[in-house]
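Standup notes
- HV: blocked on the assembly model, inputs below
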Amino acid sequence: MDLIGNLGLGLSAALTPYNILFCFVGTLLGTLVGVLPGIGPTATIAMLLPITLSLSPETSLIMLAGIYYGAQYGGSTTAILINLPGESSSAVTALDGYQMARQGRAGPALAAAALSSFFAGTIATVVVAALAPPLTSIALKFGSPEYFGLMVLGLAASIVLARGSVLKTIAMVSMGLVFGLVGTDINTGAMRFTLGRPELADGLNFVAVAVGLFGIAEILRNLETTIERTSVISRVAGLWPSRADFRAMIGPACRGTLLGSALGVLPGGGAILASFASYALEKKISKTPERFGQGAIEGVAGPEAANNAGAQTSFIPMLTLGVPANPVMALMIGAMIIQGIVPGPQVATEQPVLFWGLIASMWIGNLLLVILNLPLIGLWVKLLTVPYTVLFPAILAFASIGVYSVNSNTFDLYVMAAFGVFGYALSKLDFEPAPMLLGFVLGPLLEEHLRRAMTISHGDVSVFFTRPISAGLLTVALIVLIVAFLPNIARRRKQVFVEED
Amino acid sequence: MDIKNIAASGTLLAVGIGFGISSIFTMDVGSALRMGPGYFPLILSIVITVIGIAIGIKALRDTEGFHPQIAPLRALAAIIIAPILFGLTVRGLGFVPAVALTSLSAATAATGQRPLVVLAITLGITVFCLGVFYYGLGLPVRLIGPWLGV
């Protein structure tokens, strides 16, 4: 398995006109929705996911990935232009990016964001391509106890990285796991929590739950206040950064890429963490830290590179192990399952075209983003003037049509509405929906491996601790959880996330 | 009393106890060796219930005001009814009326909107969705359903 050959195979799949078209449509739609304040990548993907289901598996995953980084990037545009981060990982970009825009340097800020994102994306694509095969071959040796350990570790990490109360997050994960079990028990055929409704025999529809929790709840949150958009957007003139700007950008972009690639793999919120870490690092090593917050281009380039690299490497656990690192990856896994692909290490060997095509498309998508964003920036600025009162009814109509079209099942629409209200109520009570969605996707897998492991070991729990890999994974999970409960860390976590708001 | 966390605890208790009771009474729990369909959900329900109790007890001792900012009731209703309307009508009335009703319901969620504007938004979205989903993506639906006698 050589890197070049694999990437070549991927490029040949990703470079068909058809796939380029949908990669383009994905990044375009993602940017479009990402530019709208208050709708982050998760909500965007949840709402647009049904549209992709009529496509072939690889095309649909390529388009979804495009929506993901498109939305991620669109969030940075609004962060810079109107100080409204479209999603949490571009909150850091708003700090210096908006200051630059106010000083009339919106162009260089946008270019810094786009170019360092592209640079980070290019490197991260190679990282994904290099790391995926070895990890896949390790994962192929995994038995049920190892899988169980891995998923517990993933969930534990998502608990630590979520903001808010650790107890509440654990409750959310558990709730997601239970909701994931609704439907027919695969071992015995028993109906679980279906309330006698035949529609629930296949379980709660994943898309309906996700669109409800993220899309509908998001709209309700936005309707709390009458949204007025500040029209202080100045004309974006002089896009190209000066030579001094370029010199200032290179270091932060490289360091941000490194940080992002490493932290992105972490479950829960790696990309967000990476952008904060990069900003803190750049400020610390800068000779003129007082410029940060006043429009320092390093404060845009570093975090933007970190957040894009992190977004990309968060595909690694999903692609190699079938375990999602964040809600967006949970959605990608959902899309795979709907397409009839069982996520996991066997995807790389059984579906090499899909696997490498997706990885190669990441680079193409990033290139398309630069093309889309720099020359067309005026268009996105105009889009910011479309009133929300027109947008959200359209979003609701799309979501309804989309959810219905997954199975042509009207019941899914009621599930979507119910989870919309539930998600909104949960957010009012300071519960986070992201860990719940992770639990929802992992529920059936976690149970299956737990039951299988216990059957193999004849009911002896020690099976999880006598096999070295599973013991190691569970020990790390335990340490991670203990750390989350330590008062010192808990306070630090709070600080980190307060800064974000 | 910390009203917010009392409510949070109540939510967890409702889910935990509800699913727990359902696990015990409607399915076979089994043992750790031979886990029945109810085993894993029962464990999770217990975890949720215990956390609910823990948050509840702490909340009873804390004092914290809770004045949540909630979307206006009319907006909430209009948004939630929209997908339900689509579900109820897409088979009977067909795609076009269903999309129109959904958009209309959603569009009325915004306060202080003139009726003419609401209608214009509805019309625009319906035409757009017809173009994208029916003609563009070839969604297999009936444009006008049997209830309208077509």
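- HV (later): unblocked. The CA atoms of residues 57 and 229 of chain A lie 39 Å apart. The beta strands of chain A are 183-184, 191-192.
- Next: hand off to the docking folks.
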